[in-house]
Amino acid sequence: MTIWQKLNRYARDGAGSTAKGRTANRNRALYGAVLALGTLLLIVPDLLGGTRQGLPADDKLEAVSGALVSGEETRQEIRLRLEGQAAEFSYPSKAGGFPDVFAALCKGCDTTLWVDPARKQRVFQIAVNKRMVRSYADVKSAWMADNSIAPWIAAFLAAAGVILAWIAWRQHRLAAVAAS
Prior knowledge:
alpha+beta; CATH 2.40.50.1010; 6-stranded antiparallel sheet; 5 helices; 51% helix; rod-shaped
């Protein structure tokens, strides 16, 4: 039995003119609509910004240098403080190379961060003691790879939304035929 035959049987057997059947149809239609909306939310930004969404151009970055005062690793970022800088800088996990970046940090070392001032001091390139730890090209590669999963999730949600909407429509049709 193919998946379409199973779905057709499910739609046929679940159809009925009872209040429970109507509620189930409404719920399936609602689930289909929610999945379609989720799909749009994933696809539209990807179409508008591409896989570079959220990644600034390398010529927009500003270099900030100083001795490293602290480096704290969290699940989402590495928080960095430089001597003479009031701001706290953030290296996001999405930029990749988390273990290498954290291992290269040392208190008091000369650290240069390339940051996007428009994005709350987010770091997109790091050098420690004049040695490049994570280049913009590395960050860009990891960033784009992370963003590339969105179309797959959107495709799954779109397919699930279409299937749920089809089941609801099919049950509605069968209920109308059974009632007449």
